[in-house]
Amino acid sequence: MRVDRPLVELVARVGAFHITQRRMRDAQRRMEAAADGGEVTEAMRADYLAEVRRYFESFDAEARAQLRDVDRRLGRANQIQFNLTAERGVAVKRIEGTAGVLEALRALESRAS
Predict the structure, then answer these.
(1) Which residues have CB under 8 Å from 15's CB, separation 6+?
(2) pTM
(3) Of 37, 48, 43, which Cα lies nearest the Cα of 7?
(4) Neighbours of 27 (CB within 10 A)
(5) From CA 85, how far away is CA 88, in angstroms rounded?
(6) C-alpha span between 55 and 59 (Å, rounded)
(7) How many Cα atoms sit within 13 Å of 71 on the Cβ side?
(8) What does the alpha-carbon distance between residue 14 and residue 54 come to, in Å, rounded to a whole number?
(9) What does the pLDDT look like over 6-63, one tens digit per residue?
(10) Left (φ > 0), alpha (ψ -120 to 50) or beta: where does 38 sit?
């Protein structure tokens, strides 16, 4: 069977990834060689597509789990930043309030002396 353009494009797209899993890497090499030779059997095609699906569905699930984890951690970091900003605002108001009292105290004390 001749190699069709969508398969060649998929092989190139998959080949752009750094694949560390031996099974997927071997399937990729076999398909690249077959595609370069211009002949891919239906069985080779089906095996390759199944391996790509297996690898990339797993890869996708890992990436989505990582994204959820990062989003959760960012949410916590944002909450901490929000809480610290609010706490800072309270501290500034306390400083302003106490500064006013201390200033009034100094004024009274300077009049008394």
Answers:
(1) 28, 32
(2) 0.69
(3) 48
(4) 22
(5) 5
(6) 6
(7) 6
(8) 13
(9) 999 999 999 999 999 999 999 999 999 999 988 899 999 999 999 999 999 999 999 9
(10) left
